[in-house]
Write a structure and sequence with these properties.
It is a single chain. The chain is mainly α and 288 residues long. Helix content is 84%, strand content 0%. It has 13 helices and no strands. α1 crosses α12, α4 runs antiparallel to α5 and α5 (119-136) runs antiparallel to α13.
């Protein structure tokens, strides 16, 4: 990875960690997701118009279908993740999802895009994925109730698969279709707004209440979430997706330290081990 691509991914990872901490503190549920989606789309619109004027790009049928497909997968990911949290424990679903996602994305980038990581590259990927699993608490899964553990593994794996699908789909749009990250992801955001419109209409009372209680959090997440992902898409233009997808999960490392600092959460020895693994993996990818 070049210094620029690595810096883009790491910056995106830090922003991703920060907005997740803000979202966790608000605990607003689906109405919160809908609201920050509206904010993201609204903020993205003038930036999209500026991008269109300065660097016009024709929205071909292929790009429109790619953006719509990405929005569908992102929406499905949100719903599947929420269902996983309803039927199983967070400590089971979350580590499986965040570990399976980059692992499948790496495999997909090799099979679909013909990317061939070097030996240090494979070592870095393995270290980061291992660090993700360890940091997320995969070692604690075995202490969970068997039935809930099985459900969590199933829903977590499905969530991770959807993460891999939208990662590969967006990478294909940027790399193969030549999509401009700002225009492409802006279109994805608006398609997501339309897809969630039926839920917004039915739950308008809950949405108004959530806005009154979490106005600042909604604005922060709605601003930082798309910015974090657009930085990753720019990195995809410069580096192999097989490298970008695992490095993006360094956000978990940042979130662990931010959570310990601002949420009063403890930082365990296992999380420190995961941090060492991920840091070693990032170093290996930088050298690769």
């Amino acid at each position: 990875m070049t210094a620029t691509s690595l810096a883009l991914v790491l910056a995106g990872a830090m922003l991703h960690a920060f907005w997740n901490v803000v979202a966790k503190r608000s605990a607003g549920g689906p109405p919160f997701v809908i609201l920050f989606g509206w904010v993201s789309a609204a903020i993205a619109t003038p930036v999209m118009l500026w991008q269109w004027q300065t660097h016009p790009q024709a929205m071909t049928v292929g790009l429109v279908l790619a953006a719509l497909s990405s929005a569908l997968v992102h929406a499905a990911y949100s719903l599947v993740l929420q269902q996983g949290y309803r039927v199983s424990d967070f400590a089971v679903v979350y580590p499986i999802a965040r570990g399976v996602g980059p692992m499948l994305a790496v495999i997909g980038s090799v099979l679909l895009f013909g990317e061939t990581p070097s030996l240090p590259g494979w070592l870095g990927i393995a270290l980061i994925v291992a660090g993700v699993f360890v940091t997320a608490g995969v070692l604690d899964i075995f202490s969970a109730e068997p039935s809930r553990c099985q459900s969590g593994v199933a829903w977590g794996s499905l969530t991770g698969a959807l993460i891999a699908v939208y990662t590969l789909l967006d990478g294909w749009a940027v790399k193969s279709l030549g999509a401009t990250p700002i225009l492409f992801y802006g279109a994805v955001l608006w398609f997501r707004v339309l897809l969630f419109a039926p839920w917004a209409i039915r739950g308008h009372a809950r949405i108004r209440a959530c806005w009154r209680e979490n106005t600042l959090a909604v604005i922060l997440v709605g601003t930082l979430s798309p910015l974090a992902y657009v930085l990753v898409l720019f990195a995809v233009q410069l580096a192999p997706l097989a490298y970008v997808a695992p490095v993006r999960e360094v956000s978990m490392l940042v979130a662990a330290f931010v959570g310990a600092k601002f949420l009063g959460e403890s930082l365990s020895r296992v999380q420190i081990l995961g941090a060492v693994l991920m840091a070693s993996g990032v170093l290996a990818l930088a050298l690769a």
